[in-house]
Design goal:
3-stranded parallel β-sheet, alpha/beta, 203 residues, single chain, Rossmann fold
Length: 203
């Protein structure tokens, strides 16, 4: 019987991880999520993660943390180190990097530092996770305050969904920015989970 693995993920990755579980038949991977809205308050993520680890680590052979650093300034890694062995996390600074891949993301960032990135999740929930928290819906002049130095939106898509592509284009129009679409698939989210499963199988 395969070891039981708990994946603790940002809620913004729940759909992708669920699809990867289905595609690869990773039935021994169980998923629990932390509210994606904490991206606006990254200082709260490490302790929520610690709570999830402590609540579950006696029940699972391994825990995989599906977060990059996500603005926590190394605090996610500190929690993982303090909570003991058998825990690892996604590589990278943020989800844009691991979806695009480190080299491609560096190239995009170098080509235009003033880039605002969207994923499938953010394109689908653009108002709820961008417009409303920044109060641009009620104070449109804040668009210039927040996005005046940006030049483009890059949509890093995970799926080939015309509705999401259209939503991303509308988001760029609303922010009055140029638009570029780069299809990434699941990127290093998929490869990292696959590598973890392989190590588990031989370990």
């Amino acid at each position: 019987m395969a070891e039981q693995v708990l994946v603790i993920a940002c809620g913004a990755l729940a759909q992708e991880i669920t699809e990867l579980k289905r595609t690869h038949g990773w039935d021994h991977l169980h998923l629990t999520c932390i509210d994606a809205k904490l991206h606006h308050r990254p200082g709260l993520i490490p302790e929520r993660l610690r709570e999830k680890i402590r609540r579950n680590k006696a029940r699972y052979d391994r825990i995989y943390v599906a977060y990059a650093d996500c603005g926590t300034r190394g605090e996610i890694d500190r929690v993982i180190e303090e909570e003991g062995g058998g825990i690892e996390r996604l590589p990278g600074v943020h989800c844009y990097q691991f979806f695009a891949g480190s080299e491609r993301f560096a190239s995009l960032a170098d080509a235009e530092p003033g880039t605002f990135y969207l994923t499938d999740f953010l394109a689908q929930h653009f108002d709820r996770f961008v417009i409303e928290p920044l109060k641009i819906d009620t104070h449109p002049q804040l668009r210039d305050e927040y996005f005046g130095n940006y030049r483009r939106v890059v949509f890093l898509s995970q799926t080939q969904d015309p509705a999401l592509l259209q939503a991303a284009q509308k988001a760029a129009e609303r922010l009055q920015l140029d638009f570029e679409h780069v299809h990434c698939g699941y990127g290093e989210l998929e490869s990292s989970l696959r590598d973890m499963v392989k190590r588990q199988a031989v370990g």
